[in-house]
């Protein structure tokens, strides 16, 4: 009996997360980031799982590599996770070029965050592009302006 219960306990541990530590940590880290985030802001992070904040913005930023706004020199082409704590109901449209150019996709308010952009694409625009380490501008838009293009 004892051996059986130890075995069952081990199986229980595996089933509750030991096999999937990354996915469990991913949602936990971004859940915590969302709880701690200032209301009204859009966040982008250098790493996956809401790690290492690049910037946080209530407005738009036309160029993540210039010297103004919430995102500045060196923030472009780096984001690997995003967080949306907007309160207006608007979505955030992200582009792979500055000045809202190139390929794009959106994160809607109800998504809360995208913990790993490495498995997403900026599917709208000229040819599409990987979503990770490409974003260089963003703006708030009506979700219907995003059509079917949303990050998950
Ligand atoms: Ca900027
Ligand atoms: Ca990065």
From TrEMBL:
Keywords: Signal
Signal peptide as annotated in the record: 1-26
Family annotation (PROSITE patterns): PROKAR_LIPOPROTEIN (PS51257)
Name of the protein: Peptidase inhibitor family I36
Native species: Promicromonospora soli
């Amino acid at each position: 009996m004892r051996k059986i219960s130890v075995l069952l306990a081990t199986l229980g541990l595996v089933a509750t997360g030991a096999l999937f530590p990354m996915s469990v940590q991913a949602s936990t880290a971004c859940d915590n980031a969302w709880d701690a985030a200032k209301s009204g802001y859009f966040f982008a992070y250098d790493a996956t799982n809401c790690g290492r904040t690049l910037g946080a913005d209530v407005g738009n930023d036309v160029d993540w590599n210039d010297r103004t706004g919430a995102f500045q020199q060196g923030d472009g082409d780096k984001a690997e996770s995003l967080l949306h704590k907007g309160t207006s109901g608007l979505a955030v449209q992200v582009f792979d070029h500055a000045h809202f150019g190139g390929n794009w996709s959106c994160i809607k308010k109800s998504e809360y965050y995208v913990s790993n952009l490495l498995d997403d694409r900026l599917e709208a625009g000229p040819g599409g592009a990987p979503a990770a380490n490409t974003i260089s501008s963003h703006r708030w838009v009506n979700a219907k302006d995003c059509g079917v293009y949303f990050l998950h």
